[in-house]
Fold this protein.
Amino acid sequence: MRSRTTLTLTEFQYIACAKEDSADASSQSATPENRKYLPAKSFQRLESFLLENRGDSENPLELMGLSARKDVGKIITAKNYVGVIDMGGGPILEILPKVYSADGADVGHREAKELVSRMLRVLVKAPNKSMQTAQVDTARMPLYECFIRMFLDEVSEIVRKELRRAYVQTASNENTVRGKILFSEHLRHNSIHRERTYCLFDSYHLNRPENRVLKTALCRLSRRTTSAKNSADISILLNAFDAVPLSQDPIGELSLCVQSRETKDYTAALRWCLVFFRGESFSPFAGADQIQALLFPMEQLYESYVAALFRRVLPPGYRLSAQDRSCWLFLEPSPQFPLRPDLVLTRPDGAVFILDTKWKQLSTDQQNWGISNSDMYQMYAYGRQYSARQVILLYPQSASISANETRVFRSSDGVTVRTYFLDLSDLARSLTDLIRDLAQVTPRG
């Protein structure tokens, strides 16, 4: 596949339509407003794709913002989702999260791309699996190649542990009798070759849906990758699938892949197969045939990543429940309106803390730093129903607010809500500091 230009955006950055189709988007990337450009045809395709996915009641968050600016014209603003959009021609669009370190500095594209890779490894894995990092510098790769790399890491692990086999019913001419004889087929095929017998039997074989889907995905990616490392590793992995036929309907066969104890190692790799075959990522957005959108909601990535890292640094005696389902807003006439806090932390002494992740950049320029009323109503309900010692809103580090600065809100009936900023460039340390802070909070008298 011929190498193509990659245009990288971060959250809240916007792109405009280039004056000429021949304009090179990469050459127009540096402007006073940090504006970037897409060729006219690519811009129009992207605009159509966004309009197709607007107004979906199941997805109230917009994929990207559509608006206009004076002297610029139509603009498309990145927000909420990160990943890759391939318009089928022109530059490939990369969207990265806007991330700041504890000192308020922008971490840059390389570190942001590395963070997305780490978050995705958590999202696609089962919660009890450890996070592994491939011995490849993914931060230097285009984001699409990073996605391929993560898929190859999963398949490599499956091959290392050995591909799963299954009993497959086979009908063929054999020199000895195996299973049962198919007499009609035997008479039709062996009127001359009396030394053979046409039989129906079970053979223990690699030809099962999971392996067929994986091989088909590897073959497709071998034609799309532009990375020499990824291409070489795909060729090596395909050797392990030599006895496996290609799938004629990979999406259909994915529905036949039932998760079980035997196939639990396939879970993450098969999720990636769904991403590559449908071109939709883990979001429900789909575009026209010429567009492939691999897009991931940052809210979900952030929530999953924080929960996974929290479990790794949790001291003995502490308990953590993610998406807890033990409380309801009302109990009569029956339990109704379930509460689902992101994290419920219980100290060894029984003190309860509610932690809710919010992917939003707070700012000192906004009233209450930009904390929304709806979020505070939600936190108040959590605090009351769980009798929580504190409710903590976990925001990513902001550019304008110090990591040590916090806001504490107290109600007249004992609910305390406070903010806490997480340094995503060193999340384990940041969460360890938070646990240390919570250990000092006195229990209710």
